[in-house]
Amino acid sequence: MWAFLAPQIIKPPSSPTRRLFSTSRSSPKSPLCSLSSNKNQLIQSLCKQGNLKQAIQVLSQEPNPTQRTYELLILSCIGRNSLSDGLRVHRHLSDDGSDQDPFLATKLINMYLELDSIDDARKVFDKIRERTIYVWNAIFRALTLAGEGLEVLCLYRQMNRTEIQSDRFTYTFVLKACVASEASPELLTKVNEIHAHILRNGFESQVHIMTTLVDVYSWFWCVGYAANVFDKMPVRNVVSWSAMIACYANNGKPFEALELFREMMLETNDSFPNSVTMVSVLQACAALAALEQGKVLHGFILRRSLDSILPVINALVTMYGRCGKLELGQRVFDQTKKKDVVLWNSLISSYGIHGFGNKAIQLFKEMIDNGVSPSHVSFGSVLGACSHAGLVEEGKMLFESMVKEHGMYPTAHHYACMVDLLGRANRLDEATKIVEEMRIEPGPLVWGALLGSCRIHCNVELAERACRRLFELEPTNAGNYVLLADIYAQADMWREVKRVKKLLKARGLQKVPGRSWIEIERKLHSFMSVDEFNPHYEQLHALLFKLSTEMKEKGYVPRTDVVLYKLDEEEKERIVLGHSEKLAVAFGLINSNHVEPIRVTKNLRLCEDCHTFAKFISKFAEREILIRDVNRYHHFQNGACSCGDYW
């Protein structure tokens, strides 16, 4: 996406400094000039042949190296990845004053960036007196790619106090600098300022700048700002389309990502999707479990010969796994000859969310046996798989192997996986001990995992301890308040439930509403909990009521304890009957082929009543039902769930 951060190819005019060493064509060449010209040609020839050491030796005998000679020497140092040679060439430049040539200064800055010596790049910039826009852009680019975004913004303010005018490269580099550091409101304000500057100076027609702006707003989760920029772009290319689709896909708006992709495909110009586009669209399909649309995309990928690109293959494996078609993901994996760690991770994670912990561990070991070293993500995936399958001892062994066998220190994510693994197994004392003995500060992930475990086992005291930290670390995360209220409700502590709800309201927070999706004939249908405005609601509710009544005779007892209100049982039953996943399942029963499984995706954890209801439906209606919640897959068949009621 950031391909346009490549070094500029526009060459500024040779500086007056270099012209002091040039020879006029109209003057007759003296033997000395002829000798010098031959030395320059020899140095350049040696550089092109890869004989850098010999070229530097000849350089010491050349009194007047040309700009081209120095340029080739610098490029050769980059090609040989030799910082020591680069420093020697730089000394020659300094000795004859050529380091004041703006063109060569930009080359030196780029060289030091490539050789991971950003301090030397700073020295080049600090020393040069004539700072052209090319020199400024070179240091902006170098510092941005080195992760020194705040320094770039300071230098940018300094440049704006001079007479130097920003060009399209400047804006691209300084915008990227805003995301080279951790996101903060102050940096977003800076992005807004740069955006305004771009508009004032008439650069809104520059597709590279505006595409970068879309990317940056996406990084700050400002989807509305990004969409506004994209909508106003007079010219769009495949990169800008891909940037906006990725913005939607990465910010929890998969519907919008798929809709924009359809709009892109209807364009009559040459904006054909590339591999980057396809990765984002497949990600959106995975988020919605849109299997049929994913299959169509797979066909497009094959026709466009994009199936040899590893990021696309990874996205395909993930998509099939998250759409409940593990066998198709496995087939894509098996057909791939060159498997990197990301591809292995995709397959391990897919088996993990389906509850196949032993298979995930087997794949993890196969990966290592095939000479692929596990990454931090690999351990996160396999530990998550152990957690979903209740493989406590296996998970503990894998966690310990991170340091002992692979020299990798656990991150907060790995500690959170262990807390979740032990907590689900009702080994809360061990989970608490892990939190207390962590080598790093426990963050929201770890405390959140502990709170989730407390909800499963209704441990009020430990939940209150976890929430005290979570309310400090994530004061605006409504989910933590809701979980605590849920635990209080399970413990029949209704006064505390009321207190937490008042606190939630006082802080202006709202519970995330339950939402479920189902794909019927390649069309996605969305349902909200108790969605009385849905045109299908009456029909669906009537079917659910009928099924519920009949299933009660078979032993179904509604779990009304999931309702966090003191209401009569009839009203509580009405509420749980209107949960979004039940509405989606009912819609699938009415509109889908009896042979095909019903596939539903939910944005929150599947509640206990919906879990029980789906088990009864799978047996009562003789339908296979797959529900993917925020944590894992539940595969219901013949009255049983693949999770074994362990989730």
From TrEMBL:
Positions annotated as PPR repeat: 237-267, 340-374, 375-410
Gene3D superfamilies per the UniProt record, alphabetical: Tetratricopeptide repeat domain (1.25.40.10)
Family annotation (InterPro entries): DYW_dom (IPR032867), E_motif (IPR046848), PPR_At4g14850-like_plant (IPR046960), PPR_rpt (IPR002885), TPR-like_helical_dom_sf (IPR011990)
Keyword Acyltransferase annotated: no
PROSITE patterns: PPR
Keyword annotations: Repeat, Transit peptide
GO BP, one annotated term: gene expression
Molecular function in Gene Ontology: RNA binding; zinc ion binding
Keyword Repeat: yes
Ranges that cross the membrane: none
Domain DYW positions: 555-647
PANTHER family named in the record: PENTATRICOPEPTIDE REPEAT-CONTAINING PROTEIN (PTHR47926), PENTATRICOPEPTIDE REPEAT-CONTAINING PROTEIN CHLOROPLASTIC (PTHR47926:SF482)
UniProt similarity note: Belongs to the PPR family. PCMP-H subfamily.
Protein known as: Chlororespiratory reduction 2
Gene: crr2
